[in-house]
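Async update (no meeting this week)

Hi team, since we skipped the sync, here's where things stand on the single-chain job. The sequence we agreed to prioritize is pasted below, unchanged from the tracker. I ran it this morning and attached the output directly underneath so nobody has to dig for it. Comments welcome in thread, and please keep replies under the output.
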Amino acid sequence: MKLRGLARMLARTPKGASRWHSYADFREAARRRLPKMVFDFVEGGAEGELTIAANRAAIDAVELAPSYLVDVADREVSTTVLGRPVSLPFLLAPAGLATLVHREGELAAARAAAAAGTVFAVSTGSGYSLEDIAAAAPEGRRWFQLYLWKSPEVVRSLVHRARDAGYEALVLTVDVPVVGKRERDLRNGMSLPPRIRWNSALDTARRLRWLRQLATGPDITFGSLVDLGIGDDASAIGAYVDRELADPSRTWDDVAWLRREWDGPLLVKGVITVADAEAAVRWGADGVIVSNHGGRQLDSVPGAFAVLPRIAEAVGDRAEVLVDGGCQRGTDMVKARALGARAAMGGRSWFWGLAVAGEAGVARMLDIYRSDIDRTLALVGRPRFDDIGPDLIAE
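Output:
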């Protein structure tokens, strides 16, 4: 029995896993594997990328106050999210076009999340359709992220499809009234589908594994939008998204409309002020995700962890509070809980694991986070993740 268990573990451990011990290891491995334009698409942010830096700085500024000579022999990293258990207090945040970095894209991420016992929030901009992702890991917990498109019929169609495919919750992203200026993408000439230009030809030619994947994998497109009648051409769908995704006329009244369309849990993502958190709850949200879109929308706003305590204090007794912004270590997730979040989310983490080794890479990244959290619990003197509170923050 033990030998069979060891064989299964070795079978799912990607080659070279012994070299990957952290987010930084996966990020560097992904940088070597991906063309610069694709790496920058994932890594980059808006304008001067000050918000990306603020996210990390806000986490690093939090100091912990450990307790020693506490019995931490038996530790528990699990918690609950939306009233249901998760084995790992890190959720896979919505991030579009995962097929850019690996041919199995969101299918691989969904399987890895299900195996790890955590939630995968599927992006409207996923490379595979929301139905295909659900079929890839039917036992997993899945949320569906969407925007308030210009067409209510498009929104209604996506909501109904998510319900029919068994998605547990909707994640409404509200911080895209217009698309942010991502200067790396502009300099690199990033497009959908990716086009190899004269200034990127040499760099791309050196990434043979990625080129083979591009040639033999599925078409890079928005899988859930193919059925909207636009066709399956990536350029046409990309143009449709650019034209229809952002609607600067949307207001909280539209959230109330969505609340009527969807009878399951509804979370609002992109909240960085107490006022917006209060509004989200007032208009029917069951949870808020404190987030600045990973620094990819508006530059010069506070890091997510900097505003988290105020938001958690304001609405935490009425709604689930999650945080998404810069988490790279298990220690960061412990800090998130101490500052008032139920759990943390992240997108770049699973993208880097996916880029390096597909499903096995995402699984390894999540295993690292699980081990990091477990170790941190022992070192701060808290046997259970749910034991963490504000008293863990050093004054």
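Quick observations from my side:
The longest helix spans residues 348-380.
The longest strand covers residues 141-146.
Reply here if anything looks off.
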